[in-house]
Design brief:
CATH superfamily: HUPs
CATH architecture: 3-Layer(aba) Sandwich
Bound molecules: 4'-phosphopantetheine
Distance between the termini: 40 Å
Subcellular location: Cytoplasm
Function: Reversibly transfers an adenylyl group from ATP to 4'-phosphopantetheine, yielding dephospho-CoA (dPCoA) and pyrophosphate.
Pathway: Cofactor biosynthesis; coenzyme A biosynthesis; CoA from (R)-pantothenate: step 4/5
Order of helices and strands: EHEHEHEHEHH
Protein name: Phosphopantetheine adenylyltransferase
Oligomer: single chain
Number of domains: 1
Shape: globular
EC number: 2.7.7.3
Number of strands: 5
Length: 162
């Protein structure tokens, strides 16, 4: 059984993330999307909210499950029997950022990192840019799954605490 891990902050989960998860799900028996908890970073969404939004967005992908982790990802992968990590790349900047982590994870636990090229429609999309644009009144609907878009607008409009 081949299991792949798609880790990230996912604050929030974008259509760029969805593209990577969908393609991973077509190539592995199971995909675990893991929200990595960073206690030093206050997000727009709580970890529970992020998990619910990812689960709703990926409900049509039966071999995808959503989880959370706090700590070294290689420990999580060892616990879950996962040997492959998938990272989406949007640019050479992403590549420069990801390579040292891939190398470190390989040395720590023989974890293989596979890079997946982003959908060209979303190479400019990041969770942080989407939040900034939304807070300043720009239209972020084209970059988000519908359920995530509604949740972001609810946060921005003060219906959920930001
Ligand atoms: O969506 P992000 O914020 O770019 O995701 C980065 C993330 C969470 C995947 C990265 O920070 C990470 O791997 N954190 C887990 C802690 C860990 O294992 N650190 C060592 C990396 S070599």
């Amino acid at each position: 059984m081949t299991i792949a891990l798609c880790p990230g902050s996912f604050d929030p989960f974008t259509l760029g993330h969805r593209f990577v998860v969908e393609r991973a799900a077509a190539r592995f028996d199971e995909v675990i999307v893991t929200v990595v908890v960073n206690p030093n970073k206050q997000g727009m969404f709580t970890v529970d909210e992020r998990i619910d939004l990812i689960a709703a967005t990926c409900s049509d992908l039966p071999n995808v499950r959503v989880d959370r982790w706090r700590g070294l990802l290689v420990d999580y992968m060892r616990n879950e029997g996962v040997t492959t990590m998938i990272k989406g790349l949007r640019s050479s900047t992403d590549f420069e950022y990801e390579v040292p982590m891939a190398q470190m994870n390989r040395e720590l636990a023989d974890v293989e990192t596979l890079f997946m090229w982003a959908d060209p429609r979303y190479t400019h999309v990041s969770s942080s840019l989407v939040k900034e644009v939304a807070k300043l009144g720009g239209d972020v609907e084209p970059f988000l799954p519908p359920v995530v878009y509604r949740a972001v607008m609810a946060k921005v409009n003060g219906e959920m605490s930001v």
